[in-house]
């Protein structure tokens, strides 16, 4: 095998922009974004109504826009956590096998680019589209907040919500990488979509039931030893954190609530002398969930690596 | 036979004597019944001030006589004097007393102003158709005849700190013949607050009515100014009403006391600390009192697992208006979560204690942040390895 020359990433930008343009003009993207926008506006509008009814004074009123819910609608953050994996899967489930399906892969690779650039470009293009959608949503939220609440957001509000935006992007990236990995591994687009959706279902809905079961098996509770309860809880939390949705929920809870001080169990001795409800500095909140954020980013990169290895080892001529 | 009769007489005499003896002694013991008519007064000799009206209480007593009608008359009244008998609220000139009853009248005497001092005799005559009953009175005229107004403090000198309240109990006596309202005033040093109260009451008063011849208790409460230096402060109290006044001089001795204050770093009572690491804060102890604070000891009540050390732990003495710096080293517990904790710092000595709540914002170590970046870097390295291994196809 002779060594190839030049950068493997040449042409990534072109492919990413083309991919993003394709996504933005596709009917699938329009449909799913319309769904997200409608639910988001509904959630924010409900939250504003509730804020105007109940909250008299709050130093972090804008963050409440993300977290306050009014029956029957869930909060904006909950909506985003539920729908965003769907958007990412919709963008990525046929990115590789769709090319095969349309028989355009060999034509694409006839261009003077490496395969690396194709996969990187497709991933970055998808991420760019999600980033644009998220930024639009964020601006919409801030705008609605200013319009209906009648006050400007504070710097801390902006920083915290932007950090939340970054974490959301990382979470969406995990699902995008997973969908691309399935699309590279599975030849049929329908099967890869189903595979990605079933993983999403398991990790989003069933993982909360599976984690306690597994924890009960790994670390059974000894009724005579109170520390075994704690041990089981810690094991359960570790298992639950294998799901990106758990990590994302923890990041959301701490970033959007300045009063939240920890994501794990706390002892009374740790809280002695503590001031409840005192807001944490923004940097401290970020530091608390930094492991979760790092885990999301690392999971995204590793899943993409899997997709990359699988794609690179494939036979393209078909 | 004769001897028998003699002896019988003797026996009879003895028996008679024993029978009659007690009876005669009984008659001797019963006091004679007072019968007659009197005019009495408790003070037959008294003094009056020229121009003032004096009231003399008179009692008319009828003992075991039929009802008597008595015409009243004054004899020997000097020229220009005014006199009137008052009974039942009216002016009277005769009195009638039922048997075994007493009638009370008041004689109002008013010597004209400007009469020189001297003693005058006046007789009250009560005329019946057959007899005249007389009560001689002796009136002494003098300028100072009316009683004095006095103000006597129970304890004229008190001692306390600048924060205590000095309570002077005083007795005001109106020796005059008239009830009057007297004004109260106190002259205190600058910044001192004075309050008058009646007896043990709680109402603040500015004046006090005192009946003629009686006295009232009153309390003067003086709150010294907090910044008063140690020393003796005079307070003069004045009670005045009409043309009378009385004065009392009191003194309050303010003793010095230390007053400690803890001032945090840059006058703030908050600071940052990292969990598990020692942070140092410079506190300043200020003695704003008027006496030195001695044997000041620093202590703290931190949350469990925390350690608080002082440098120095004990201070021998801080003079008035002096400051002393204390280095407070706070080390939050390893397991402290990020956020605000309250640490109570205390300085005590010379019988006083001052505490400050120091709000410590615990920051978590950034080591986990570095670890997170390490995890991401490892993932990127894996991706880089994959690119190296499978790249450029």
Automatic annotation (TrEMBL), chain A:
This is ABC transporter permease. Keywords: Membrane, Transmembrane, Transmembrane helix. The keyword Lyase does not apply. It comes from Bradyrhizobium lablabi. One of its GO terms (molecular function) is ABC-type transporter activity. The chain crosses the membrane at residues 31-48, 76-96, 117-150, 162-186, 193-219, 289-311. GO terms for cellular component: plasma membrane. Pfam families: ABC2_membrane_2. It comes from the Bacteria.
Automatic annotation (TrEMBL), chain B:
Signal peptide: none annotated. The keyword Chaperone does not apply. The chain crosses the membrane at residues 367-388. It comes from the Bacteria. Coiled coil: none annotated. Residues 49-127, 274-346 form the Alpha-galactosidase NEW3 domain. Pfam families: NPCBM_assoc (PF10633). InterPro entries: A-galactase_NEW3, Ig-like_fold. The keyword Transmembrane helix applies. Keywords: Membrane, Transmembrane, Transmembrane helix. This is Alpha-galactosidase NEW3 domain-containing protein. It comes from Bradyrhizobium lablabi.
């Amino acid at each position: 095998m002779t060594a190839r020359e030049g950068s493997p990433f040449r042409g990534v930008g072109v492919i990413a922009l083309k991919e993003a343009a394709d996504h933005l003009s596709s009917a699938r993207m329009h449909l799913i974004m319309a769904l997200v926008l409608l639910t988001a506006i509904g959630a924010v509008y409900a939250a504003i109504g509730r804020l105007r009814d109940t909250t008299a004074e709050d130093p972090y009123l804008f963050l409440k826009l993300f977290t306050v819910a009014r029956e029957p609608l869930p909060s904006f953050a909950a909506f985003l956590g539920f729908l965003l994996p769907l958007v990412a899967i919709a963008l990525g489930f046929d990115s590789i096998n769709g090319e095969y399906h349309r028989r355009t892969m060999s034509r694409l690779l006839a261009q003077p680019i490496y395969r690396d650039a194709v996969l990187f470009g497709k991933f970055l293009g998808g991420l760019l589209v999600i980033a644009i959608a998220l930024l639009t949503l964020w601006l919409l939220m801030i705008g609605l907040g200013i319009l209906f609440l009648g006050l400007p957001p504070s710097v801390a509000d902006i920083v915290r919500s932007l950090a939340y935006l970054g974490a959301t992007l990382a979470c969406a990236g995990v699902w995008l990488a997973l969908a691309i990995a399935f699309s590279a591994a599975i030849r049929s687009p329908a099967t890869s979509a189903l595979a990605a959706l079933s993983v999403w279902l398991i990790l989003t809905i069933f993982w909360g039931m599976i984690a306690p079961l597994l924890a009960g098996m790994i670390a059974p509770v000894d009724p005579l030893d109170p520390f075994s309860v704690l041990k089981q809880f810690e094991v359960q939390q570790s298992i639950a954190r294998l799901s990106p949705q758990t990590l994302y929920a923890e990041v959301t809870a701490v970033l959007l609530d300045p009063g939240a001080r920890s994501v794990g169990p706390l002892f009374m001795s740790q809280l002695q002398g503590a001031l409840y409800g005192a807001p944490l500095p923004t940097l401290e909140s970020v530091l608390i969930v930094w492991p979760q954020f790092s885990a999301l980013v690392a999971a995204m990169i590793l899943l993409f690596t899997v997709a990359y290895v699988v794609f690179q080892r494939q036979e393209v001529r078909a | 036979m004769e001897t028998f009769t003699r002896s019988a007489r003797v026996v009879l005499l003895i028996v008679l004597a024993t029978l009659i003896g007690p009876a005669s002694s009984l008659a001797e013991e019963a006091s004679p019944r007072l019968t007659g008519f009197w005019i009495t007064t408790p003070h037959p000799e008294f003094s009056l001030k020229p121009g003032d009206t004096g009231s003399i209480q008179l009692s008319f007593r009828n003992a075991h006589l039929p009802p008597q009608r008595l015409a009243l008359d004054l004899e020997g009244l000097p020229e220009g004097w005014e006199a009137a008998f008052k009974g039942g609220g009216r002016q009277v000139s005769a009195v009638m007393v039922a048997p075994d009853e007493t009638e009370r009248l008041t004689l109002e005497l008013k010597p004209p102003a400007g009469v020189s001092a001297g003693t005058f005799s006046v007789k009250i005559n009560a005329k019946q158709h057959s007899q005249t009953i007389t009560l001689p009175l002796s009136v002494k005229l003098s300028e100072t005849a009316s009683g004095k107004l006095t103000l006597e403090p129970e304890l004229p000198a008190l001692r306390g700190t600048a924060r205590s309240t000095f309570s002077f109990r005083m007795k005001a006596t109106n020796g005059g013949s008239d009830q009057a309202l007297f004004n109260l005033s106190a002259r205190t040093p600058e910044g001192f607050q004075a309050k008058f109260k009646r007896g043990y009451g709680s109402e603040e008063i500015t004046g006090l009515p005192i009946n003629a011849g009686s006295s009232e208790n009153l309390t003067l409460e003086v709150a010294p100014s907090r910044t008063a230096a140690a020393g003796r402060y005079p307070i003069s109290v004045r009670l005045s009403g009409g043309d009378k006044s009385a004065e009392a001089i009191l003194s309050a001795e303010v003793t010095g006391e230390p007053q400690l204050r803890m001032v945090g770093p840059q006058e703030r009572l908050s600071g940052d600390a990292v969990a598990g690491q020692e942070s140092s804060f410079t506190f300043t102890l200020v003695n704003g009192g008027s006496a030195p604070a001695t044997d000041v000891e620093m202590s703290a009540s931190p949350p469990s697992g925390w350690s608080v050390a002082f440098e120095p732990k004990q201070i021998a003495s801080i003079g008035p208006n002096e400051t002393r710096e204390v280095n407070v080293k706070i080390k939050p517990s390893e397991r402290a979560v990020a956020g605000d904790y309250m640490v109570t710092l205390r300085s005590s000595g010379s019988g006083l204690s001052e505490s400050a709540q120091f709000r410590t914002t615990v920051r978590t170590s950034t080591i986990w942040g570095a670890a997170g970046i390490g995890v991401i870097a490892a993932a990127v390295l894996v991706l880089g390895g994959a690119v190296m291994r499978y790249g450029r196809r």
